[in-house]
Amino acid sequence: MTETDTKKHDMGLAGDAFFSAADINRHMRRRRLAELASEEAREREQAKARTEQIKQLMAPMEITEERVRHFMGRVRKAAEQGERQILILRFPSDLCTDRGRAINNALTGWEDTLVGVPKQVVQVWQENLKSLGFALSAEVLDYPHGMPGDIGLFCRW
Q1: Strand 85-92 to 150-156 pairing
Q2: Sheet holding 135-140, edge to edge
Q3: 113 with 102: CB under 8 angstroms?
Q4: Mean pLDDT of the chain, nearest integer
C-alpha cells in the first residue's frame, strides 16, 4: 500500500463523519424550506380561524340577565383584586370600517368605526354602564406585519 493509498484509507476510516460545506448548505436550505412551509400552514390556519371569528362576531349577541350578572361578577372580582379594568372583548381589526386606524390613533369617534358585536358592546355600554360611571376604551393589542391586528375593548372604573 502506497502512502497515497494509506491517506485515502485513513479518510475512509472517518466514514460519513466528514461532510462538505455544500452538504451543510443543502441541509440548511431544506430545513428553512420546511420551516417556511410550517409557518405558511400556521398562517393559513390562523386566517381560517380569524374568518370564522369575524363571521361569529357579525351575528348579534343576545344580552341576557345571566350575561349581565356574569359580566358584573367579573368586574367585582377584578376590583377586589385591585384591578381598574377588564377586557370585555378581543376581536380582529377587520371589524372596524377603517381596520383599526381611528383606535390606533386615539381619534374621537372611534366607536363609530365598529361593526357587529363590538358595535353592540358599545351600545350596551352607552345605554347601561356609562351612566353608572364606567368608561369604555379600545386599543390595538398587536401589530402583525406592522398593521393593527386584534383590538381590545376595555371596561374601566
Answers
A1: antiparallel
A2: 85-92, 150-156, 135-140
A3: yes
A4: 91
